[in-house]
Amino acid sequence: MDTDGHRVMAKYYRPKHNPLSTPLPDTKQLSSVKEQKAFEKGLWDKTKKPGGDVIIYDSYLALYKHSLDLIFYVIGPQSENELMLNAALNAYLDALSMLLRNQVEKRSVLENLDLALLCLDETIDEGVIVETDSTAIASRVSRPRADTSDIVINEQTIMSAYQSVREKMQRGFGPF
C-alpha cells in the first residue's frame, strides 16, 4: 500500500496445504475485492504511522514495514510463527531493494511491477514461505543485462560497418 492507503500490489493466498477446508475460527475469508479493500483500509488506519512492526488486526497477525511512500505487509493467521513471517518480509524487502537499486518507492515499484511480483513469487508460493535469503531471491529474479563494456568502437569498426553497408547498397541499388 502507499502512504495514502491505496493498494499498489496485493496477493491473497488460499493455501492448498491447509488440511482443513473450513476457515480458521474467528477469521474472515477475504474472498471478494470489496472485503479485501475494507480489510486493507482498516489495517492501513492502524498502521499508517511509522513506529511499529507487528499488529493483530481482525484476527490476523500483520507484520509491516514502512519504506518512503510505501508500506509493505505480510499477513497470516494468529497462530503463524511471527519470526518466519518477519524473515519473509525482510527477505522480500531486501531482494526488492537490490533489484531496484535501493530505490524502493511507489514510482519505481510500479515501473518494475514485474520484478516486484516475481520477487514475491520467489519468496512465497501459494501461501508457503519458500525462501528467506534475499540474495537468492534477487538472483533468481534479476534480468541478465547486456554487457556493453566489452564492445570496443574505434575507427576501424566504423569503417568496416560503412564498407559493409556500402556493399549491400551497391548490390541492392546498383553502383553509386
What does this structure look like?
The protein is an alpha+beta fold and 176 residues long. Helix content is 44%, strand content 14%. It contains six helices and five strands, in the order H-E-E-E-H-H-H-E-E-H-H. It has helices at 33-47, 82-99, 106-111, 113-123, 134-141, 155-173, and strands spanning 54-57, 60-67, 70-77, 124-125, 128-129. The strands form two sheets. Strands 1-2-3 form a three-stranded antiparallel β-sheet, sandwiched between helices. It has a two-stranded antiparallel sheet with strand order 4-5. It is elongated. The relative contact order is 0.12. The model has no long low-confidence stretch (mean pLDDT 80).
Principal-axes geometry comes out as: elongated
Q: Which structural class do the helices and strands define? A: alpha+beta
**How far apart are the termini?**
63 Å
**Total DSSP E strands:** 5
The count of helical stretches stands at: 6
Rounded radius of gyration (Å): 24 Å
